Amino acid sequence: MKANFKNFLLLTASTLIMAVGIYFFKFANNFTFGGITGFAVLVAKFTPLSASDFSFVANILLLVVGWIILGKSFAAKTAYSTILLSVTLSLFERVYPMSHPLLELIFAILLPALGSAILFNIGASSGGTDVIAMVLKKYTSVDIGRGLMISDVLFTLCAFFVFDVKTGLYSLLGLIMRSALIDNFIESLNRSKYFHVVCSDPKPICNFIEKNLVRGATIVNAKGSFTGDNKYIILTVLSPSQAVKLRNFIKENSPGAFLLISNTSEIIGKGFHSV
Q1: Are 109 and 64 in contact (CB under 8 A)?
Q2: How far is CA 14 from the centre of its chain?
Q3: Comparing 29-43, 147-161, 247-261, which segment has the lowest mean pLDDT?
Q4: For strand 230-238 and strand 218-223, is the pairing parallel, antiparallel, or unpaired?
Q5: Number of other CB atoms surrounding residue 109 within 10 Å
Q6: Does residue 132 register a pLDDT over 50?
Q7: d(CA 138, CA 131)
Q8: What's the CA dihedral at 269, 271, 272, 275 to 10 degrees?
Q9: From the CB of residue 101, how many other CB atoms can be counted at a distance below 10 Å?
Q10: CATH class of 192-264
């Protein structure tokens, strides 16, 4: 129940972050990166449909594709996010219509990228070409950021012909940066610390890991190449906050231990989450 409520809050917050970035900074500047919301800018230029209304219709169609290929859980989360995003954009459009462009490319990139990364990280999306990117990731070796670039590049290039070179260049820059930022955000959200601890007595350290940090560890027998002394290598993966606690504990209680700590975000196993 607690996990479901946390996912609901993350879905809502990340979608609202995206809505602010898309409406106030992307739509206002005719930026065409970002899949369906980018294509919606082109549609709004030539048809009576608003960008918000077109986004809603297109997202519903792609949601059906996501439900068929990626499953019910993904579709349910994405449906909520899609509807909330579309309703919020329509509300912004009617309550606060934009008449003057805001050349704030950084916010048009940063806010939707952060929102998308949070959604992807909990197994959802805002709909649109995000669904295509998830399908590409599932069936190919393409990561989400690159998948978004592949699915969105055609819409982005259209900005050169529909608007002007300046808008096209902004849109192309936005596409490249958004794709890179999403992958970096996802990696940051899943970042953990991988410990190699070389010591003579592994028991105190392992007890601290198991009882205080509630994590597991693996002990490997080893031998020092110079001294020939018998050693033990403790392998464990911790969250960044747990890593600080373990590092401080080892410094105080096993000052002779050798620590090798590295960042990792691709962990598959009990207790860890990987997109």
Answers
A1: no
A2: 10
A3: 29-43
A4: antiparallel
A5: 27
A6: yes
A7: 11
A8: 80
A9: 13
A10: alpha beta
Each domain of the chain, given as residue ranges in start order, spans 2-189, 192-264
- pLDDT per residue over 86-117, tens digit each? 788 878 877 776 655 445 667 777 778 888 88
Place of tokens 């999403």: 182
Q: Which pLDDT belongs to residue 98? A: 60
Which tokens hold the place of 93?
Answer: 């459009």
The answer to whether residues 185 and 117 touch, using CB atoms and an 8 Å cutoff, is: yes
| Chain center to CA of 84 | 19
Q: Do 167 and 159 form a contact (C-beta atoms < 8 A)?
A: yes
**SS in 3 state form for the chain?**
CHHHHHHHHHHHHHHHHHHHHHHHHHHHHCCCCCCHHHHHHHHHHHCCCCHHHHHHHHHHHHHHHHHHHHCHHHHHHHHHHHHHHHHHHHHHHHHCCCCCCCCCHHHHHHHHHHHHHHHHHCCCCCCCHHHHHHHHHHHCCCCHHHHHHHHHHHHHHHHHHHCCHHHHHHHHHHHHHHHHHHHHHHHHHCCEEEEEEEECCCHHHHHHHHHHCCCCCEEEEEECCCCCCEEEEEEEEECHHHHHHHHHHHHHHCCCCEEEEEEECCCCCCCCCCC
The phi, psi pair for 221, rounded to 5°, reads: -75, 140
